Amino acid sequence: MGLGGVGVNAVQGAAHAGALTIIGVDPVAMKREFAESVGATHTVAGSGEAVALARQLSRGTGADGVVVTVGKMSAEVYAGAAACLGKAGTLVLTALADRPGEGDVSLGGQLATVFEHRIQGSLFGSCNPFRDIPALLRLHEEGRLELDRLITRRYSLDEVNQGYRDQAAGVTIRGLLDHSR
Q1: 17 Cβ neighbours under 8 A, 6+ residues apart
Q2: Distance CA 167, CA 180 (A)
C-alpha cells in the first residue's frame, strides 16, 4: 500500500523473493503503472479494491503479507491493510507521522489473536547495510533491480522546494537533488 519510492522497491523485493501475486495499491495511476513495470501483478487505487482482490486471488484466505509504505499512517490505512491479511499474515508498517502519537492506530486484539496476525515495523527495509547494499548493487549491475527509472525528476538546489511539493502531490516516484545542475 503506497507506491512511491519505498513502495515500488517493496514490490521489487516481493518479486525477487518469489511472490507469485503482488498487489500494488495507490490512488495515482502513474505510480500503479510504474509498479506493474517492476513486478506488481495487479494494481488498484484503494484499500477496498485491494481487500476484494486479495480475497479473490487467494481463494478467500487473504494475503500472506502487506507492506504499508504510505506517506502518513492513519487508522483508515491500517484498517485497510489489516483487512487484506489472511491467517498468520504479516503486516509491515513503514509509514510514519509528522509527530509522535499522530500516526497511532488501534489493534483489533481479538482478530489479531484468532487470525494470528503479526505486526512489524521496518525502517530502511530492516537492512544490514554491510550485507544488503553490496547485494543490491550486484542485482542492479546484473539488470535485475531497477533503480534508474525510479528517478522520475531531477532538481537543482534552487528547485528543492518544488521537489518537496512534487513529492507531496504524488507526481514523482523518486526525485533526485542534482548538485551538478
Answers
A1: none
A2: 21
Give the pLDDT confidence of 46-98 residue by residue, as tens digits: 999 999 999 999 999 999 999 999 988 888 999 999 999 999 999 999 987 77
**Torsion angle, alpha carbons of 130, 134, 136, 140, to 10:** 160
Per DSSP, the three-state class of 39 is coil
Hey, what's the cell of 77? 490505512
Burial (Cβ within 10 Å: 0-12, 13-18, ≥19) of residue 85: buried
- Taking residue 58's Cβ as centre, other Cβ atoms within 10 Å add up to 15
Amino acid at 163: G
Q: If we measure between CA atoms, which residue out of 84, 47, 43 comes closest to residue 64?
A: 84
Contact 65, 89 (CB under 8 A): yes
User: Buried b vs exposed e over 40-54: b needs ≥16 C-beta within 10 Å?
Assistant: bbbbbeebeebbebb
